[in-house]
Amino acid sequence: MMLGNNSHVLYFLGNSSYYPDKVKLTLKGQELEIVLMTILTSVDFSCNNFQGQIPHEIGDLNSLYIFNLSHNNFTGTIPTSLGKLKQLGSLDLSSNNLTGEIPKELTDLTFLSFLNLSYNNLVGAIPKDHQFQTFSADSYEGNARLCGFPLRAGCNSQTDEQNGVPGESEKKAGEIEWDYVSAVLGYIGL
């Protein structure tokens, strides 16, 4: 901590991941402004009946490790800005009224070890990149219009082509899905 000479501001010189809170104090007739730097690593607003869209500013909380907005009434799409939360290990947006596709930006969350997007109104193909190959079907259940691995519902060729994936009609009979095999092998540590 350091006391600024001119402005009488107490501040912390540190990581930009901190979020400032300011408090003004009067001590022996001298007014001081103390800036408290905090890191927000966990947000759990589950079961609160919140409504509206998930704010895209959540993506600016770059030290966030756990983010849970489950069992609310959020609407709209999943913000692509969540893909900026590089430290995120757990994301639970289940049991809301979210619509649209799962943003491909979420595949950039390489520390993500828990994902629950179940019981929303999500549509389209589940992204195939990175750790999304390791999440079980439970992460996506209750979204009738989602398709692709790990769900039983395969995507039709039109949906696949829109997402840059060869359609089922373009795959050869008996062709091995090496993406799935490598994900399983990576998961079991072979």
TrEMBL record:
InterPro entries attached to this UniProt entry: Leu-rich_rpt, LRR_dom_sf
Intracellular or extracellular location(s): Cell membrane
This protein's record includes keyword Transmembrane helix: yes
Principal subcellular localization: membrane
Keyword Transmembrane tagged: yes
Membrane topology classification: Single-pass type I membrane protein
One family name in Pfam for this protein: LRR_1
Alphabetically ordered keywords of this record: Cell membrane, Glycoprotein, Leucine-rich repeat, Membrane, Receptor, Repeat, Transmembrane, Transmembrane helix
Domain of life: Eukaryota
Cellular component, GO annotation: plasma membrane
Entry similarity comment: Belongs to the RLP family.
Protein name: Uncharacterized protein
Lineage, highest ranks first: Eukaryota, Viridiplantae, Streptophyta, Embryophyta, Tracheophyta
